[in-house]
């Protein structure tokens, strides 16, 4: 679209086209998917009521690993080839994982102010291919039981299998293979990236952790944070009516500002 409007502008002003003017801008992207099979032990959160997460969380015994998850999952994502060819980077894939309350769109800023907030567009200008996935339970990927299945041991295993598929070229619809992979995580997915590289140190060549700290301050904001979520099936039934109430959505902009940005400070 941007390309077309630029051309239109040039035509309107009668500018003679130059090589620069007709050069393609922006990355070239396509949807890709992975089918992965995992066998892993999750925490036993039996007793956590998706209709009353806050009320039942405190009364749970200290969760222990013990519930086996043995399943196939479909993981969706968006692969982008960069607009700039840089031979030293073109075979290095940035593997982008979005954070708890987002999807792959976190990495493009959904076009707000053009590409000002787009990691994908910036990487493209630097010559890096990117793959932004929807993590299990988010976006266009599968939405299994949010309490018993969508936990970090299963998430870690799913990402491990996705990365193995990228390395081997099997079980995915990516157009090509890569010699290096950089894991880039945001927030919760920085924590998962940390778990992944501890368990599987050779899955990626390097790791970038954003929105994350080595210490976790459990503040009043953390507790208030839980109250800014409500079952998505109730808050947006048209989109999420078929999901278990354990899938939640942020409902309160002021609350989100306070929890994530420490408003009013
Ligand atoms: C999970 O916990 C519940 C209740 O806390 C218990 O009854 C059940 O046996 C546990 N299941 C496993 C597989 O440990
Ligand atoms: C790619 O996937 C997204 C998310 O599911 C969807 O909204 C979009 O329509 C898909 N695009 C194409 C070209 O299939
Ligand atoms: C949390 O709130 C309580 C009561 O409102 C207050 O006494 C306490 O200092 C607060 N703690 C933090 C870490 O802000």
Automatic annotation (TrEMBL):
Pfam families: Abhydrolase_1. It comes from the Eukaryota. InterPro entries: AB_hydrolase_1, AB_hydrolase_fold. Residues 96-212 form the AB hydrolase-1 domain. Keywords: Signal. Residues 1-19 form the signal peptide. This is AB hydrolase-1 domain-containing protein. It comes from Hymenoscyphus albidus.
